[in-house]
């Protein structure tokens, strides 16, 4: 009965809304209504009102958006008789409607994000057996040593925990490769990782052939193990000791749960954060997904597997034949298959792994290209809208997650649209200046309010536009390739751990300069037309302003393609651990304040004599309860002060057997990392965010052009795999021939 009443109320509200949206009103009345709605929404936003006010905010904001969509559909398209204007006008209109439909789906997804309380706990006798899989392809042994050591140290009954290294870089196929150099490298890796696993008491698993990429590797792990639960950590995702205690309880409590997913936290900046120097103060790009969207998906039992930092139920995987491998995003595909079989998922918003992001722009775009192609493969080959067994909310959630990846096409449309009027006088947006203010500006204002209200603490203004633009240049072609042949994409491993000796341009930078030049030329030509064609001054100002916004984003992107040097091979993470420095037989209490797999920075807690560089010492590592674990050999590399306090820089003199001690210092307690994440998650006023972007516009383009002119040869050519994945948008390429490495 209650459900029926709610359905009737929603139907009546929808009919009333449609009636209001379709009412013909004058421009002045529309402006009054829209401004009133915006003021109401802004008051809710500024006062940080939540609870039922969230629904009020979304309702009045949606009214403005739908009024714009109705007006845009019925009053702005040119006549079909004028094909030169009509065809590009319809393309632009469809791009706008795509974003409005996507906005509606996203509002549904995050309308009431699920905030989970403390994780359920179970007695050790009730806990199921857990197999930890660490799939690897080309990661170095020191990266793997940290992840494997952290996995071995998980807080869980030792007789119910096994750790497996799944090595796809040392398969029989690779060890018997025709290329002697590749075969020798595969044999060297195979033997080195076998020795590493022997030292750490980890089970080494490889297979005959590299089929079905990561999904095939994980399925090989399933065949070699028998635990009730499977935990997957990427090779560079080292877990905290508490991981299983914060996740497995959900599996014990509900036998229909197939997945417990946790956020991915990264210890190093992505190329955009690094090159624009925002990592320490701005929310990372993935925090919008893990901080808001996954919690919204969780509300509708649609949180999906993200490839790592997750627990899965073996029985569920066996029901669908293991990890799915039809597409190159095996994680989301597997979750979709299992949701369609009636299984449940859980999302726990507690970062409990620290991983690595791609350091270079080419690697970053290559990674996003794989995600984009894989999600579109799912959309085309396993469309959630047609798959039986899913609820309607789950269908909307999965369709939203797939459709978002068409953004590069829409971004290119928005980039090109003002140029058609400026250069060719095509009237594809037929409105007066008054209508533009009453409908378009109010729609843009309320859209900005919606984004800031829902995502303001995890995504600052203008950052979505910048990230989308940077990716769109190369992902445009990736989308076309999937649409033409959904089965064609292949899995490419993301390169990580790269270093740069000096500042330089990215090897994939040239399209960004070309686009900037075109937009700058359009801005100059707009000024010329405004002076010589006063009769079109009003609409020209609108279009020129649109082009100016595109130019600002393109200018900021020139800072992104200017790669900053990165000589540190191992990123440091913040920590706060007590230890003892043993020097010449004497122990000195110290606090470890930041640490990496290569060394640590410590603060002596008392007086310490001056120590010569390269002095050998040892660091006594203990658990948080004071239980000593062992001595870590170190070298004192430097001694100085930081903020008035003495500090020592330590380097390790360690082999793989010492990595459990390093893992204990780095990851036993991730509270400092979670606090770092929380400090970054704060709202940024629109004017402050705009000032940031303008600072980048004034600061970076000249430096980028200086690199372009004086050291163009400094950039290394991209790898063949990068060339395959990183083709710029065809509409911006100088010829139809593939770009050569």
UniProtKB/TrEMBL annotation:
The biological pathway it contributes to is: Glycan metabolism; bacterial cellulose biosynthesis
Q: Name one GO cellular component term.
A: plasma membrane
Enzyme class comes to transferase
Pfam assignment, any one? Glyco_tranf_2_3
Q: Which molecular function terms from Gene Ontology are attached?
A: cellulose synthase (UDP-forming) activity; cyclic-di-GMP binding
Entry EC no(s): 2.4.1.12
Q: Which cofactor does it need?
A: Mg(2+)
Q: Which reaction does it catalyse?
A: [(1->4)-beta-D-glucosyl](n) + UDP-alpha-D-glucose = [(1->4)-beta-D-glucosyl](n+1) + UDP + H(+)
> Keywords on this record?
c-di-GMP, Cell inner membrane, Cell membrane, Cellulose biosynthesis, Glycosyltransferase, Membrane, Transferase, Transmembrane, Transmembrane helix
Keyword field contains NADP: no
- List the InterPro entries: Cell_synth_A, Glycosyltr_2/OpgH_subfam, Nucleotide-diphossugar_trans
| Transmembrane segment boundaries | 30-47, 54-71, 83-109, 404-424, 436-454, 505-527, 539-562
As for membrane topology, the entry says:
Multi-pass membrane protein
Superkingdom of origin organism: Bacteria
GO terms for biological process?
Answer: cellulose biosynthetic process; UDP-alpha-D-glucose metabolic process
Cell compartment(s), UniProt: Cell inner membrane; Membrane
Query: Its biological function?
Result: Catalytic subunit of cellulose synthase. It polymerizes uridine 5'-diphosphate glucose to cellulose.
What PANTHER family would the database entry show?
Answer: CELLULOSE SYNTHASE CATALYTIC SUBUNIT A [UDP-FORMING] (PTHR43867:SF2)
The identity of this protein, by name, is Cellulose synthase catalytic subunit [UDP-forming]
Give the organism, scientific name: Aureimonas jatrophae
